[in-house]
Amino acid sequence: MSRWRPGDAREGRDAMIRVDQAGEYGAVRIYAGQLAVLGDGSPAARQVAHMAEQEERHRAFFDAMIAERGVRPTILQPFWHVAGFALGAVTAAIGPEAAMACTAAVETEIDLHYAAQLDELGDSDPELSDAVARFRAEELEHRDTALASGAENAPAYPILSGAIRLGCRAAIAVAKRI
Question: Are the C-beta atoms of residues 47 and 145 closer than 8 Å to each other?
């Protein structure tokens, strides 16, 4: 009888699914915070609502994969619930450009994260690879939309973007383990 051991292939795959679900959940919460501040009438709010719909679909996919594959979700989900909403609300309160700067920063890190996952997965898990590739394309669309919508015109853009990107990298690292 084969027994699971720390460091085996399943552990790495479980960590991928856990962090992807946590990230998509966080994205849903960021957009919820932005929409709470932006309302629903502005061009920025319509763009955010469209991106939020796609993120919700991504989250639902990873929720189902967690259940089907018996992956333990991150225990930090209550933190992501509050932190994601707060990040979205604060950036939207600064202005539409700051909300878009948040999206551009987050999606830049997610692109790097998903690209690394695709390299690691190769052909070993077609279901997961296909989803990550599809979602990565949509995340890049979000980043490009945010940049085209004035993200780089946000107050203190380099600092804001750098801080958000650093936070994303930290969240990814933590969600893989906890």
Answer: yes
**CB distance 103 to 50 below 8 Å:** no
Q: Under a CB-based contact definition with an 8 Å cutoff, are residues 21 and 42 in contact?
A: no
CA 53 to chain centre: 13
Helix-then-strand count for the chain, H and E:
6, 0
- Note the pLDDT tens digit of each residue in 39-60: 878 888 888 888 889 889 999 9
Spatial CB neighbours of 157, under 8 Å, sequence gap ≥ 6 = 101, 151
Output the pTM of the full model: 0.85
CB of 28 closer than 8 Å to CB of 52: yes
